């Protein structure tokens, strides 16, 4: 707090008067960070309709934000992701969680899958990316592109298993024929039972 006050050319009491404490300052910065990141998400999501590509672009946008200013993100991690505060008091977690949850829910519903897991998945994804990105920033044992690809590969296996991956486009007749197929617990449509081949007539 002393460093921030000195950089801003004000005294610490002025900071406390405006933000209350360190956590309040973290929330104010988190609000700006979250707004910028959500704007970035909207931009990359508008560039493609492919679900997996959107996951790749979203993770890369998030990692890029953190990489550009790791010191601010470290400060936010203590205030917004840090222990000792209720989840609904962590502004960055809440806002990004709601954003990712809405996007996942819409994507799952668009392909006819169960959108019930969207919210817990969203917050699970936040935690995974947060911790793994901190590891990557500290170690730098692989490129950003490889890091994003590895995280995407892991996430996509779960998301596609939950019904997000619709696969290649089907002919209209095939799609209509599968429209009534029951949903699996994860939301993906179960394959229709195979039609047995016709019996051959026995020779006399």
CATH topology: Tetracycline Repressor, domain 2
Output the helix-strand order. HHHHHHHHH
Number of domains: 1
Q: Tell me what the CATH architecture is.
A: Orthogonal Bundle
User: Helix content range of the residues, please?
Assistant: 55-70%
**Distance between the terminal alpha carbons, to the nearest Å?**
96 Å
CATH top level assignment = Mainly Alpha
- 3D shape: globular
Report on this structure.
This protein has a single domain (22-166), classed as Orthogonal Bundle (Tetracycline Repressor, domain 2). The model is unreliable at 167-204 (pLDDT under 50). The chain has helices at 2-8, 12-19, 22-45, 51-68, 70-81, 91-110, 118-139, 144-161, 172-177. The termini are far apart. Helix 3 (22-45) packs across helix 5 (70-81) and helix 7 packs antiparallel against helix 8 (144-161). The longest helix has 24 residues, at 22-45. By secondary structure, the chain is mainly alpha-helical. It has 9 helices and no strands.
SSE blueprint and pairings:
Layout: H1 2-8, H2 12-19, H3 22-45, H4 51-68, H5 70-81, H6 91-110, H7 118-139, H8 144-161, H9 172-177
Helix pairs in contact: 2-3, 3-4, 3-5, 3-6, 4-8, 6-7, 7-8
Briefly, what is this?
With about 200 residues, this protein is mainly alpha-helical. The chain has 9 helices and no strands.
């Amino acid at each position: 707090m002393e460093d921030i006050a000195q950089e801003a050319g004000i005294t610490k009491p002025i900071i406390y008067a405006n933000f209350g404490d360190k956590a309040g300052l973290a929330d104010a910065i988190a609000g700006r960070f979250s707004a910028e990141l959500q704007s970035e998400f909207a931009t990359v999501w508008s560039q493609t309709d492919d679900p997996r590509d959107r996951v790749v672009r979203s993770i890369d946008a998030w990692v890029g934000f953190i990489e550009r200013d790791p010191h601010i993100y470290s400060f936010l991690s203590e205030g917004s992701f840090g222990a000792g505060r209720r989840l609904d008091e962590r502004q960055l977690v809440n806002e990004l969680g709601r954003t990712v949850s809405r996007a996942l829910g819409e994507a799952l519903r668009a392909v006819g899958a169960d959108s019930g897991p969207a919210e817990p998945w969203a917050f699970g994804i936040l935690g995974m990316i947060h911790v793994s990105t901190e590891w990557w920033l500290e170690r730098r044992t692989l490129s950003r592109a490889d890091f994003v690809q590895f995280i995407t590969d892991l996430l996509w296996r779960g998301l596609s298993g939950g019904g997000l991956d619709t696969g290649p486009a089907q002919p209209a007749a095939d799609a209509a024929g599968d429209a009534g197929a029951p949903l699996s617990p994860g939301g993906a449509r179960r394959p229709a039972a195979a039609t047995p081949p016709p019996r051959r007539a026995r020779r006399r």
